[in-house]
Amino acid sequence: MMLYRAGVQNIYKNTTVRVGNWSEDLELDELKMKEFLHRKEHGELLVHKVQKQLATSLRQVGLSYSRDGYVHFGNCIMLYNSVTDGVLSADPSDHPASNAQAFAVTTSTLTQAHVARNTFVIEPINQSGQNCEVLKLGQPFRLRINPKLVSEPYYMQSEPLSPFSSSKVSRRQLVCMAPSRNQDTAWKVVWKDINQRFEMDGQPVPANAEVVLVHIPTNQALSSAKLLHYNDFGQEFEVCAHTHNTVQKKQTLFSEKMGRTTTDIPQRNELSPNFWAFLTASSPEVEKLLWEDDEKAN
């Protein structure tokens, strides 16, 4: 009896009889194939979108050249971090969980060339500065994403840490690129050495030299450490707003007690994750790419 049943099962298994909704299934497969061929012909497949995004993000662009050694409003620059040895980079396809319209930012060592995703424009806030004027230490400014990456204006933004808004890896204060011009996009540059910071306030910001970028509303410094952040470009490093200070709290409290300092004067120096440099072009020839792009756009 068992052999008979096994033989019957094998007979039905090897037959070409169609059972169930075979006609509907066949028509559905044909429709799926037609849709696939249509999307492939018009470049609407996911692989095409990724390739287009990579081509736009990695497009080489111009970089401003500093003739006096200082950073100016309107300059197109790169931001270099000393710890990760990478440059600040934006990814339009990576969105923070708390803001679907924003772009994630990282420091990347994958692309050291000046491309659309790792170059930014320094813009003034209100009437605090005009294009071509020197950016000064302590002066508010905004950092805009390169218009060659996205046409809409996106600015580097941070907001207070909360259960709904934090960085992806370290869960510290989130930093992203957002399409808004509010107080959360206000930043300033301060001198690296805490002992000379008060005297240097108001002086021009040097190009290609390490400084500290501070988020004005929260008073947290821009930071990047070797915390891995994965995206379409590969393995990069997280960027957040967090001030890494040296350990000397007892000395600071003692100085305040003796009247040598006050609470509004910073006493503890930032550490290397907070050190950044505004990178400019090494020669005037690199800056010509900016003018060529503007002429093509017009």
Q: How would you explain this protein's 3D organization?
A:
This protein is α+β, with helices and mostly antiparallel strands. 24% of the residues lie in helices and 24% in strands. It has six helices and twelve strands. Strands 1, 2, 3, 4, 5, 6, 7, 8, 9, 10, 11 and 12 form a twelve-stranded antiparallel β-sheet that branches. A hairpin with a 2-residue loop joins strand 10 and strand 11 (234-241). The chain is elongated. The mean pLDDT is 83.
Keywords:
298 residues; alpha+beta; 12-stranded antiparallel β-sheet; 6 helices
Secondary-structure-based class equals: alpha+beta
- Please give the largest β-sheet: 12 strands, antiparallel
Oligomer: single chain
Mean pLDDT: 83
Poorly predicted runs are none
Distance between the termini: 86 Å
Radius of gyration: 27 Å
Task: Encode the helix/strand succession as letters.
Answer: HHHEEEEEEEEHEEEHEH
Q: Count of DSSP helices?
A: 6
Q: What percentage of the residues does DSSP assign to strands (E)?
A: 15-25%
Q: So what's the overall shape?
A: elongated
DSSP summary, beta strand count? 12
Roughly how much helix do the residues carry, as a percent range?
A: 10-25%
Ordered list of secondary-structure elements with their pairings:
Blueprint: H1 2-13, H2 22-41, H3 46-57, E1 76-81, E2 86-91, E3 103-108, E4 120-124, E5 141-145, E6 155-158, E7 173-178, E8 187-190, H4 197-200, E9 210-215, E10 220-231, E11 234-241, H5 249-257, E12 275-279, H6 284-297
Antiparallel strand pairs: 1-2, 1-4, 1-12, 2-3, 3-7, 3-11, 4-5, 6-7, 7-11, 8-9, 9-10, 9-12, 10-11
